[in-house]
Amino acid sequence: MREQVFLYDTTLRDGTQGEGISLSVDDKIKIVKKLDEIGVHYIEGGWPGSNPKDMEFFQKVQDLQLSHSKITAFGSTRRIGVKAKEDENLQKLIESGVKVVAIFGKTWDFQVIEALKTTLEENLDMIRDSVAYLKENGLEVIFDAEHFFDGYKQNKEYALKAIKVAEEAGADCIALCDTNGGTLPHEIYKIVKTICTKINIQIGIHCHNDGEVAVANSLSAVQAGARHVQGTINGYGERCGNANLISVIPNLQVKLNYECVKKENLSNLTSISKYVHEVANQAAPSNQPFVGKSAFAHKGGMHVSAVLKHPETYEHIKPELIGNSRRVLVSELSGQSNLMFKAKEWNYSIDKKDPNSKLLLEKIKEKEHEGYQYEAAEASFELLVKKSFSEWKEYFLLDYYKIFVEKNGEDIFSTEAVVKLCVHDEMVLTAAEGNGPVNALDHALRKGLEQFYPIIKNMYLSDYKVRVLDETEATASKVRVLIESSDGTEKWSTIGVSGNIIKASWLALVDSVQYYLMKNDNLIKVVSNKKEEQFIGLNNH
Amino acid sequence: MREQVFLYDTTLRDGTQGEGISLSVDDKIKIVKKLDEIGVHYIEGGWPGSNPKDMEFFQKVQDLQLSHSKITAFGSTRRIGVKAKEDENLQKLIESGVKVVAIFGKTWDFQVIEALKTTLEENLDMIRDSVAYLKENGLEVIFDAEHFFDGYKQNKEYALKAIKVAEEAGADCIALCDTNGGTLPHEIYKIVKTICTKINIQIGIHCHNDGEVAVANSLSAVQAGARHVQGTINGYGERCGNANLISVIPNLQVKLNYECVKKENLSNLTSISKYVHEVANQAAPSNQPFVGKSAFAHKGGMHVSAVLKHPETYEHIKPELIGNSRRVLVSELSGQSNLMFKAKEWNYSIDKKDPNSKLLLEKIKEKEHEGYQYEAAEASFELLVKKSFSEWKEYFLLDYYKIFVEKNGEDIFSTEAVVKLCVHDEMVLTAAEGNGPVNALDHALRKGLEQFYPIIKNMYLSDYKVRVLDETEATASKVRVLIESSDGTEKWSTIGVSGNIIKASWLALVDSVQYYLMKNDNLIKVVSNKKEEQFIGLNNH
Questions:
Q1: What are the entry keywords (chains A, B) (predicted)?
Q2: How far apart (Å, rounded) are the C-alpha atoms in residues A144 and A107?
Q3: More exposed terminus of chain A, fewer Cβ within 10 Å: N or C?
């Protein structure tokens, strides 16, 4: 029987205090549904007393039929010298319609005197009155002991008294907060261990990542006896963020043998992490532990042959457990085993004797010599493989493109591209403007293709990176352009290398469009100016 | 007396195993200089046996006069059944010319049998022979005990025997490696503690971040007795990266009271982190612990007044300690201390009452808002400072430029730029070709200026980097261009930001030329078509 650890997600409240993180009410509702699906126990939705947007959320969320999660509202203890039942913020907590509330209160004497500017005794009364009042109103109450660790280190007795008061007033859980994020794991362990002997209700932990140890701190607290863990998806949060639940969960469940979520829900961690990154409009770090694109990616040639034989030699857990998967990167450091693994992903078996495989291997070597690097451009790599295996369609051919840039005086700046394509035996000439030569080229190319392949309107470029390869020649040197494209659900990356940045960008652009059209070939109805018909691609290699 | 912990940086080797991280030989040399400046004890430069690029690095690095750091080369124990002195890879380590080497060997019996496919006894011989041979050749030897923690958990006796053999063969340090990154802090502590009682030489630690606890693991190891910590700047590295030295250092030095670097060098951590992100062409995460832009950023409201009166209420350490600064997002105080610090480097004292200082402060704020970041573009920053302090000369004015790019058929590709300048009251019209629009622009600009300032022939662009700022709009988003220039002895970096890549590049190009001409103003003899005279710049601001 595994011991249960309760998860308390504050992505919607503390998470949105992170710089650049902003969630609409609809975004919040979407995230709630996902968190409920995997079985997060508590979802802190916001601070009803602090802004009207949060109040709207608490109304809307009542319409959801949640299967696992309890929605909680966040607030503070009553104000100084006010009766609990007359405190506006406590009132709003009750009005929010939730069944669980988390209120924070001060436990650091220094903070009481310097920030709150009241007496130590009044602060204890504020905690007692607020908890008791909320309990009287039938709510489950979590008391967030703000600055607990800093407070405890400076005045053990007062910090302990503050949480004892909350316990006596009927709180259901005391969450010890490392508000500044500066405490280290060995301190957390020691202090939580002590507190667990003095407090008889559930102890929780709330960590911040200012020391880059928030996950370790959360684990330490659980090992010392805490059974309620607060954090956010992907570690969003004020300053350096909160403890990242996406990493806390598998560490607790897979490595330390606690029960956090149902075993079958563990494999949703990768998708929920990506989903929240998307909703919050954040780039997903490829090296994010457990769920990142690189988390189980193997680059060194030596590693690869070993990992294929015995994954446990270079993987700390099975990637499938958390819904991630192994990737083998094709790079200058890699050997043939990388390539073979890669090809297998698209169901090509590479046999050194097969002339197609031989062609592919030679092509890759040649391309890498030119400066191509496929580890971050898997779509281009897949096209290369498809080409070698004669699965290729030509959707358009370039006749020419021209670009004109003109800077004239302070305000006049224009960038135009003219592209002439041959699409399905028709010549198409288009022109477009852009914020730079590549943007103009992208616009003109898509303008020319849209009339034939309307589906192309669904895709867009989501990232554009340029890297100079041989830096001794600077602007005259070779450049590698990486383009990331998306159709709103999937993303794919393509690459172009050339001595000319425009040419390199063009190659990556063409690959991006080619990849999208090939992937969706079954959806393509060619709309030509002359007739509408099912398009049969030219088998051109 | 604080105990010393030795830092071993492997950004150049393990760091480049990270997906998307690729460093040229010149990039590596640049990073070495920075690491030496802050006093990192060991810098692992690469694996001379594995690729020719690394060998080139080891040759070039010998020309540097390093004040603190020892360059180390990475390799493995000898191959099976080969004598150490006949092993090609060990030979290459010796030939690399370093004084310190790190060789890895297997300590997990399962790996010896399954991955290495040899006997447990032969593996011990491989370790013994290799260490002894390198010692005979006068080298300091660090033995990287690969998979040590996994090995120790499965077969204590063999893992211990393997490192004992290395000790007996004369190794100077045993670095215990958590190769898969899956071990947790409490396990690291317990195992390192035991090993320290059994091994009499220095114990090191090498952690990976697969469990998001690499920093905590490194701290645990030191608390258990390790005195050598391996890691990378910003935590780059295979899969989820290595232990992030940028976080390990302040945790050890500020919180746990060990000595890692000289106290005065601690404040360079923020700038070195940014510098390495720039060189590696990686976006610096704004929530990066200690050094991120948001690490000490306080959102409006309650926190602000408290943090200004008593920073310790919401800051775990003083941001200045590590060269970062507090940002109060609603206040105008942000950025000032940073700025004053930088301006001091060029002997400008910034006084808030001085109108020039005021002008500069406003200008910087405006520029930073536009997306400028002067961390890696000090020449542009110095120009900005000079402009505010009325030390400015205008060497030329732009009338217009035009760029024409044409791709026509397989082989015809042309890129031409036309530039019209006003130099010393003369109008100059030039045209030039290039390998891309920026290269063509650079050629045309310099062609136009050379006849007036022949000294310009000595300078050239040595690096060119582009970064997209707002990645959601891809090719239509803002770009930041960084240009590095050189005259063969000195190097300087300039920046341009614009929605248009050409415009951003032009701004950086102009700064680069302007900086060079100002630096060498005393050498400039203006050669005009009409007359030769000492140039007196227009005082233009």
A1: Amino-acid biosynthesis, Branched-chain amino acid biosynthesis, Isoleucine biosynthesis, Transferase
A2: 10
A3: N
Q: What kind and span of H or E run contains B432?
A: strand B426-433
Chain A to chain B, count of Cβ pairs less than 8 Å apart? 337
Rounded to 10 degrees, the C-alpha dihedral A378/A382/A383/A388 comes to 140
Which residue ranges form the domains of chain A, and what is each CATH number? 6-261 (3.20.20.70), 397-534 (3.30.160.270)
Q: What angle do CA A535, A536, A538 make, to 5 degrees?
A: 125
Nearest CA to A105 out of A130, A136, A71, A138 is that of A130
Question: Distance between CA atoms of A222 and B366, rounded to whole angstroms?
Answer: 47
DSSP B190-226: HHHHHHHHH--SEEEEEEB-TTS-HHHHHHHHHHHT-
In angstroms, the separation between the Cα of residue A235 and the nearest Cα of chain B is 10
What's the residue count for chain A?
Answer: 541
Residue of B nearest to A312 (CA): B180
As a three-state string, the secondary structure of A460-488 is EEEEEEEEECCHHHHHHCCEEEEEEEECC
Q: Given an 8 Å threshold on Cβ–Cβ distance, is B19 in contact with A294?
A: yes
Test A415 with B467 for CB contact under 8 angstroms: no
The alpha-carbon gap from B200 to the nearest alpha carbon of chain A, in Å, equals: 26
ipTM of the complex as predicted: 0.74
CA B341 centroid distance within chain: 20
Q: Which region among A25-29, A469-473, B225-229 has the lowest average model confidence (pLDDT)? A: A469-473
Residues in chain B: 541
- Name the amino acid, one letter, at A267: S
Strands (E), A192-286: 202-207, 228-231
The model's pTM is: 0.74
